[in-house]
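tool=predict chain=A
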Amino acid sequence: MAFNHLPAGAHDAFGPLSRTPVTHSVPMANTHRPGPPTAPEDVRPTPGTVLDRLSRGPSRAARITHTEHLPPREGRHAVWPDRIRTDVVAAIQAAGIDHPWEHQAAAAEHALDGESVVVATGTASGKSLAYLAPVLSALADGAEAPNGRGATALYLAPTKALAADQRRAVRELAGPLGNAVRPAVYDGDTPFEEREWVRQYANYVLTNPDMLHRGILPAHPRWSSFLRALRYVVIDECHTYRGVFGSHVAQVLRRLRRLCARYGSDPVFLLASATASDPATAASRLTGLPVVEVSDDASPRGEVVFALWEPPLTDLKGERGAPVRRTATAETADLLTDLVVQGVRTVAFVRSRRGAELIAVIAQEKLAAVDRSLPRRVAAYRGGYLPEERRALERALHSGDLLGLAATTALELGVDVSGLDAVLITGYPGTRASLWQQAGRAGRSGQGALAVLVARDDPLDTYLVHHPEALFRQPVEATVLDPDNPYVLAPHLCAAAAELPLTEPDLDLFGPAARDLLPQLEAAKLLRRRATAWHWTRRERASDLTDIRGGGGRPVQIVEAATGRLLGTVDEEASHTAVHDGAVHLHQGRTYLVKHLDLEDSVALVEEANPPFSTTARDTTAISVLETETEIAWGRGRLCFGSVEVTNQVVSYLRRKLITGEVLGEAKLDLPPRTLRTRAVWWTVTEDQLDEARINPEILGGALHAAEHASIGLLPLFATCDRWDIGGVSVPLHPDTLLPTVFVYDGHPGGAGFAERAFHTARAWLTATRDAIAACECEAGCPSCIQSPKCGNGNDPLHKRGAVRLLTHLLSESPPPTPPATP
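tool=predict ok
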């Protein structure tokens, strides 16, 4: 039997204002926060005071496992390079910014010198102004050109909300420049009647990589005048471009550079990231160009208080009688309620769409018992909402009409919100980069800020709240992406050939793997070589061959059966687990039950209901080794990395009580299996090793299974991923290795670089896994150490002590650490 775990499918505007002398930082525009109970700005409580109020009482106080205090920091000023136009400097000063910070001036200097640059400084450090100063100066110069269109600039954001917010900020800043700067958003929400104006007249186009891939590059003849004049390409929040998504974006940028060269331009790339490790290397890999790094943050920062919060154990028993902690969702809803009652403006981040909806609903119900006016000041914000719903919520948050918001990561990189006091983080978000990005959303005007990480009942979360050094004494992760992944590269070669016939000199731009792929694309009759170039052979659009977000397939529409009203969408990849028959779906505070998932028409029909439970899909997985690319000896065992084929099928779902998570029952499902070819890391042990570790055949399966679960949970500490990006399988006797084997694989076609990272950090990764299991206070295993909420085998069998003995013996024979792979 194989045991498996399947993967699921802050932005700053200009930074704190700086005046000489600096006494404090204020927002660019006063944020109105209407009505009680919000405290006036001049009596805003300190972060420590807010935390003290949250933790009153012995039960609450015991939930705080660690408090980290980050002291305030003074800012360091500079002067703008003299090549920035005087009217641009005047416009910046009119916005209240008399002097730039040192890192802003340095980045602008590199941009003016024609050097691509990445600004990697903290949240709210003014990265936007660092790239806007040279961009606005170039656009204003171009507006004075006697002939032609003048200079243009392209801005890429990972979310629509971020692009829309940047347009508002640019319009305000560039107001004194008149018609010299014409910003416009061009994305899927842009009305068709506006798109022609954007193509012809906008000189600062704000979009996202998806629209560049599907809308702009395939239609490049219509964008020829814009591309011919393209001076700068801004890539905001560039650390989000990792894994498969980042690899796709890297190839989209190479296609952009190719077309720019065709039209005679060579744009400078300006990248911004609040959180990145070795940002110059990551930015160079993303763009394919040399990139200069500016990472010495010279901006001021208010005090930050960061608390680690562990929910208490309950009297309930989970699977196999394991102890159960109170859910992080319920705990966060309580904290959000308390903060809103205090008038503390708060965003509660949660990883799932359903979790965001649930936190908002619970908080609204609790607030109604305090003051009937308060529930309307709390809402949920997530992907899948219709555009008009997102914009209304963004306006309400920006204006201060909302005091509390439960949001997915759709807001992590979304609108710029000044004046937030606190951030609640419901479960570790998967990477230290995301953790600091979310925490940085509070205190963005320079005031003090409170951040609270509320741990889930999960191996990684439990490890972190009891090992704060893993969060506060470690750098953020390296950005992992692999543009040479053939599953990524192949469709972009086709898209490039459809845009312009692909020639031999082009291949160097796309990387060393391009030449090897061309014969395969010819054999598949996707490309045809004529004379010296390869041509796209089909009538359909080549850009439709791939979804750069890695989902694949068209989104499944969620439709209310009784009315035919479209509620939203879900990625096709996630539909089997999210909107299967019988699934509970939350939307805007309302609960729906899925009546039928039609895979052929990509529609999930739902009806409004009020069930007292949530649902969790269960699956089974088999894995086979296709190729072992590299392996090393771990004593008599082996550590391997290579290509595998994973076959997965969602077979049932659990019904759980909403607040407690108690399992109410299981229902079978009839869904087709899916096959995934990807990369994996795996390790084997021999019979002799098992004997020495006192692992007999009766507990072998449970020991391997427990080690697999915990290792998946801990891998995000060592690779830029979260546990939903990866999956695992453990087998007491695998047919390909002929030994007991544990696999951990990337949950994306062709791999995403996570398993390779795991291979190179295996000793540290498995050491942390062993330590996390051993340190847990439970007797036989629980969700905090070895149980998984997505286990296809119902967390059976598991053997906690066997896993510790097995990993201890394996690590005793491990070789010295190998150097990590270059990101």
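Residues 243-263 form the longest helix (21 residues). The two ends are 36 Å apart (CA to CA).
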